[in-house]
Amino acid sequence: MAVGIEGISFYTPGYSLDMVDLANARGEEPDKFTIGIGQSVQTVIPNFEDVVTMGVNAASKLLKSDADRAAVEMLLFASESGVDNSKSGAMFAKDQLGLRDSIRAIEMKQACYAGTFALMQAKDFVTLHPDKKVLVIASDIARYGLKTPGEVTQGGGAVAMLISTDPKVAVINDDSVYESKDEKDFWRPIDSDIALVDGHLSTDIYKEMFMDLWNAYKKNTGLHLPDFKGFAFHLPYTKMGKKALEQILDEVTSTKQAYFMEQLAASQFYNRYVGNLYTGSVYLSLMSLLKEAKGYQAGDRVGVFSFGSGAEAELFSLTLTQGYEDVLAEQDVQGMLDARMKLSVTEYEKVFESQKLDSSDDSETEGVALAAEGKLAAGQCYFAGWKDHYRLYKTAK
Fold it and tell me: Please, which domain of life does this record's source organism belong to (predicted)?
């Protein structure tokens, strides 16, 4: 019995910042951002969007009918940008998606890795319950602060996946290897909305854990680099995937090395124009690879390297299924990216600062709601502000 990804979708808000503009405003050479880091544009998150709204807006593309919603037995919501210290983002999302009450809904957190844990839990559940489906949402906002070293790697968005025994995109193979280490490379204190990071240490751990898992994977499976069509990497910035892949390219010929670098470029394309979305990053990379690369077909094996600072990582493979192109064709990611409103650096800074909402200030509710109206398509979920310290969500008319 095959279990895998039946559907996959992506959502990011409708505002963007050009990295050349940011570099110029910060007194940096644009090439440092566009080539050194590998980012061209990043999504800017308005104050009427958060991880719940983005997750709902991504998942709504998969749940188009009452029958689709009724088929969901479990909702797993992966995020390190939770909206409440107690209540799961999954509970807010369940209500906004119109899912029935007789399901399980829970939030998972471990930096950027939690989306993969959710995916594997979904696979295990469906394996035991072949007639059930699980909705996985990986939604995050990367915030490092204005005029900080990490500013260029901000961004946000959500990837939603429907897991079932009808894997129209890919089968999740039973070949995972994983590793967990207590590392001090990235964290966000409970009293801060800004992440703290040791970038050099995080890069070293990323590369080290990839090699640990790659060697374990080859030993466990007997598979080697030529057995793969391509790879999707966790991309906090697009250059990170290159740092991992280059470590194993000497296992193949120079011709094959050039081929895998081409596949890497295809897998980086969407992330280059969105920025970091933490738990969803590797799955946006997967969508980019399957959409932008050429010559893929059913039966091809794709590697997936998921990493979360702090640190946890997993390496596994997917096998593409017949008709996966049709599923990806329904997702007009490029159209969504092109339709975003480009902000000046000054406008971006104002939007960034506007996220600091006080849950005791009900007077902000109206302002946030009015900001959303007219800027979202009908049916899109948005954050409408606070009422008695409680988050309110609405759907644009």
Answer: Bacteria
> Can you give the length of the chain in residues?
397
Q: Of 174, 171, 142, which is closest to residue 155 (Cα–Cα)?
A: 142
This model's pTM is above 0.90: yes
Helix/strand/coil for 109: coil
Given a contact cutoff of 8 angstroms between Cβ atoms, the answer to whether 138 and 79 are in contact is: yes
Residues catalogued as catalytic: 80, 112, 234
Q: What's residue 19's pLDDT?
A: 98
Which pLDDT does position 60 carry in this prediction? 97
To which H or E segment does residue 204 belong?
A: helix 199-221
Average pLDDT over residues 220-246: 96
Instruction: List, in sequence order, every beta strand (DSSP E) within the chain.
Output: 4-11, 15-18, 41-43, 72-78, 104-108, 133-142, 155-164, 170-172, 177-180, 186-187, 196-197, 230-233, 301-308, 312-320, 341-342, 381-387, 390-395
Provide the pLDDT for residue 199: 85
Architecture per CATH, domain 171-321, reads as 3-Layer(aba) Sandwich (3.40)
Instruction: CATH number for 4-169+331-395: choose from 3.40.47.10, 1.10.287.1080, 3.40.50.300, 3.90.230.10.
Output: 3.40.47.10
For residues 45, 51, 52, 53, the Cα torsion angle rounded to the nearest 10 degrees is 20
